[in-house]
Amino acid sequence: MFGPILLVVLARAGFRQLRGPSDPNKTLLLCFALPVLALLVVQALLSRAHGNWAATAYPAASVFVTAVLLEGGRQRLFNVSFGLHLILAAAIATAPAFARTWPMFEQLKFLRSSLGWEDTAGVVRERLAEERYGAILVGSREMAAELLYYLRDSQVPLVVWHPGGAPHDHYEMTRPFGASTREPILYVSLTPCPPRVTGAFANVTAFPAKRVPLVQNEARLVYTCRLTGFDDPDGSEPK
């Protein structure tokens, strides 16, 4: 995320600054960057950490490494790093537009996973057009995030299946499924509707899977189910 050149500069100059502080302004900048990175390293070792979580560390870190490079007369190294970042940013921004037609992109897993979500939402729109549903139910953080964006104009609320206990992500905490969720419910998944979800409902209608093209030889299967009659006899409904 930060770039190979800037990361090395941050590590070396940051270590030197901590060993022998020479500029209080640089020390202040490091106070906004290093604690965040340290905490996320611990988080990654204990459980998991996503790259974007470290974003708050990099504004101060960017100012720090820029000052270090320019004060040290490393203008050429700074220009190389800046050019590298521009090329990479342009490639990431434009690659999805060609990923479905360029065979080389089939080898890039991150591109395959980022494609086709608008078409996936289109499958959901087709189901919503066939019948009035009280809610859309999903079982993953990824599906919740993508459908909330691409169905942002839909009036049908989206909820997330949560098996109980502490929520595992933001969506399980803010959009949990519950007994008060209006039926019928449209369950959307990238795998066949699982018994752990469908088993809690008296009536389940599974629709044929829809194929969403990704890259030349890859596709995504979207599964949908109509659910009614939520039954929670032991009071252990998802929270």
Average residue-wise pLDDT: 86
Shape by Cα distribution: elongated
Class derived from helix and strand content: alpha/beta
Strand elements, count: 6
Q: What is the end-to-end distance?
A: 35 Å
* Estimated radius of gyration: 24 Å
Strand content: 5-15%
Total helices: the number is 9
Low-confidence stretches: none
Largest sheet properties: 6 strands, mixed
Helical fraction equals 40-55%
Secondary-structure element string: HHHHHHEHEHEHEEE
How would you describe the overall organization of this protein?
- The chain is 49% helix and 14% strand.
- The protein has helices at 4-19, 24-46, 58-71, 75-98, 109-114, 117-130, 141-150, 170-174, 195-198; strands at residues 135-138, 158-160, 185-189, 201-206, 210-213, 219-230.
- Strands 1, 2, 3, 4, 5 and 6 form a six-stranded mixed sheet that branches.
- Helix 1 (4-19) crosses helix 3 (58-71) and helix 2 packs across helix 3 (58-71).
- The longest helix has 24 residues, at 75-98.
- It is elongated.
- The model has no long low-confidence stretch (mean pLDDT 86).
